[in-house]
Amino acid sequence: MKKSVFLGALTVAGLAAAAAGAATLDDVKARGKLNCGVTTGLVGFAAPDANGQWDGFDVGVCRAIAAAVLGDPTAVEFVPTTGKTRFTALASGEIDVLARNTTWTFSRDTDLKFDFVGVNYYDGQGFMVPKALGVSSAKELDGATVCIQTGTTTELNLADFFRANNISYEPVPIETNAEAQPLYLEGACDVYTTDASGLAATRAAFETPADHIILPEIISKEPLGPLVRHGDNDWGDIVMWTLNALIAAEEYGVTSANVDELAAGTDNPEINRLLGTEGDLGPMVGLDNQWAMRAIKAGGNYGELFEKNIGESTPIGLARGLNAQWTDGGLLYSPPFR
Amino acid sequence: MTTLSDPPSQSFQFSKLINDTRYRSYTFQFIALLCVIALMSYLGWNLVQNLRAAGLNISYGFLGSPAGYDINQRLIEYDSQSTHWRAAMVGVLNTLLVAFLGCITATVIGVFVGVLRLSKNWLVRKIMSLYVEIFRNVPVLIWILVIMAIFIAVLPQPRDFRGDDATASMLGGLFAFTGRGFYLPRPYFTAEWAAGGAGWLVVIGVLIASFFGSRKLSAWASKTQEATGVRPTTWYLTLGIWFVPLLIVLLAQGLHWEIPALAGFNFQGGIFARNSLIALWFALSIYTAAFIAENVRAGILAISKGQTEAAASLGLRPNRIMNLVILPQALRVIIPPLISQYLNLTKNSSLAIAVGYMDLTGTLGGITLNQTGRAIECVLLLMLFYLTISLAISAIMNAYNNAVKLKER
């Protein structure tokens, strides 16, 4: 016991020491690789494909950051994290940025000492049930057994929702999305709840997706976005503005296809500043002037990433909804590049 | 003339601390202790400094704030508005429950298998060694997951009990064995004065009285045997002592059974033993039983063959030799390693989250840790809880060991 206390203290001291180190940018450059925390596997957001290459919407953000900082979108080490391990991984310095459908909440931003740099997906918690149950509203779920991922905001929202509606339920806590699928399909739980985007992604992986419906109630606000450690603001700026660059690129019509052509210079000063042909934005964040151009080229702008990974043409089939550009009635709005 | 020589005065010299063998070991132990204290305080100080640098502090204030999450299996009152401390208590009780049940079944299975491993029957012996080798050589986490997966896949779900073309039905209309767990009839009392826990306290009191009654009966039987050489037949008296008062009390308090019935999404009413509890309990039991079986075998083999032969020459039958002569002596060898197995089982129960059983690691070390982000505080508290539970088990088992160990007079 004495020994384990000792080792425990040693580990904790080690973790804390690593977290205290600043200048993530220098670390990443010295390492030549970006350590990016992602999910353990959620089709469309982050999952390894048949060749073992990570692919998805969150992965696209990681690759854009790697392209901006290191010039190579493949220079990323993907670290799969669960709902439980993700914050420790980021706080300890094991990963440089966490891009894993993480909800931006007050206490995570302040008490846990992280900085959310923006929102890459506006989501909300929903419920999925088998059609055979004949349920059409979440309020009819009195007495149901609900599968739920632990360590997320989901279980708090769920407790609130059922309490507010004065109905009972039986929670079945589960570690990962992959473990939840068979439990739900075997009927060990009646309902599966997580973010609506995650439900759509999970359902897409089923043999017969049409047998399951996602109930209309969205019971929470879940702004999902990448986050970094609090205290290293230079690194936070880079991640924030890489995300903004992807969003702005869609607004200005810069795509991975035409970015080379536009980088030669256009008559739109916004695009010129974004792509580095005008002004000196890159050096202000410690990078060169082509950083945003490389980020956009890595996987395309925000709209391209969305359509390719989770959009309506994919099996996941999510509509843009709140995630459309502000010019199209959505919430995406990048601050100006100047 | 007489010379009076005083013994040389024992003035203290520092060199004695090193050179005098009486003090040397104390000196070195003291130095070692100082080093350990220094190292610990350096680590602790380092931790505090680093936490301060990261803007964090150690605080247990979060334990008093509402937990905000629900727990399915709770032995005490708990809802999402209860505090984190109460959630931790629910977890502690769940850990103790599965550890208690697991220790009992593991011991029963372990003793059974351990004895049979020494059977003269080749087939029985080989089957038992196969069991031991399979179960103790695969990690317990895998057994937990396998058993849970089989549980869920093999047993019907509540939806299979529904409708006119139901593919599953309740056993005798009383028991429902589903993939979500077992629903069993629940006894309750209708008499007014037996409401709440009072009725059950009376039942427990009667059982304790019956226990002492049967002890007394057995003592009387032994006394008669010593005096007359014939042991009176007492089994029907024993049965009477156990069951007659119990039946009277149960009927007097108006015993009724609540039968589980399908209502809505699940069965309602009755006792619900969750699949997570059963799978975890079963996995921990059969895994630990494999180790206990080996302890039992070692204990039996440690008893000289002469004991068996001596008992046989007195005319005892083989099963009485085992129960009266071999096992009581073997216990002295079995119990010390058995304590370790109980401790292992208790600590292995922290794998519960793999099947969604909300034990201490699942509540305090899982959801509470995640929602509050107070990792260091939660882990320290977790260590303290497990340490306390383990030391308590050790203390109880050591007391038992002292009771059965060889008395040297």
Automatic annotation (TrEMBL), chain A:
Q: Does the keyword Nucleotide-binding apply?
A: no
Key word Transmembrane present: no
According to the record, the signal peptide region is: 1-22
InterPro entries in UniProt:
Bact_solute-bind_prot3, Solute-binding_3/MltF_N
Indicate the segments forming the Solute-binding protein family 3/N-terminal domain, all copies: 33-262
Show the CDD domains listed in the entry. PBP2_BztA
- TM regions (residue ranges): none
Q: Which family does it belong to?
A: Belongs to the bacterial solute-binding protein 3 family.
What PANTHER family does the annotation carry? AMINO ACID ABC TRANSPORTER PERMEASE, AMINO-ACID ABC TRANSPORTER-BINDING PROTEIN YHDW-RELATED
Name-wise, this protein is Amino acid ABC transporter substrate-binding protein
From TrEMBL, chain B:
Q: Does the keyword Transmembrane helix apply?
A: yes
Name the residues that span the membrane: 26-45, 92-116, 137-155, 193-213, 234-257, 277-300, 379-400
Pull one GO CC term from this UniProt entry: ATP-binding cassette (ABC) transporter complex
Question: Main subcellular localization, coarse class?
Answer: membrane
Topology in the lipid bilayer: Multi-pass membrane protein
Q: Which GO terms describe its biological process?
A: amino acid transport
Residue ranges annotated for the ABC transmembrane type-1 domain, each copy included: 92-397
Per UniProt, subcellular location reads as:
Cell inner membrane; Cell membrane
Domain of life assignment: Bacteria
Q: Mind listing the GO molecular function terms for this protein? A: transmembrane transporter activity
Q: Which UniProt keywords apply?
A: Amino-acid transport, Cell membrane, Membrane, Transmembrane, Transmembrane helix, Transport
Q: Name one Pfam family in it.
A: BPD_transp_1
Determine if DNA damage is one of this entry's keywords: no
Question: What family does the database annotate?
Answer: Belongs to the binding-protein-dependent transport system permease family. HisMQ subfamily.
PANTHER family from the xrefs?
Answer: AMINO-ACID ABC TRANSPORTER PERMEASE PROTEIN YHDX-RELATED, MEMBRANE COMPONENT OF AMINO ACID ABC TRANSPORTER
- Name-wise, this protein is ABC transporter permease subunit
- Lineage of the native species? Bacteria, Pseudomonadati, Pseudomonadota, Alphaproteobacteria, Rhodobacterales
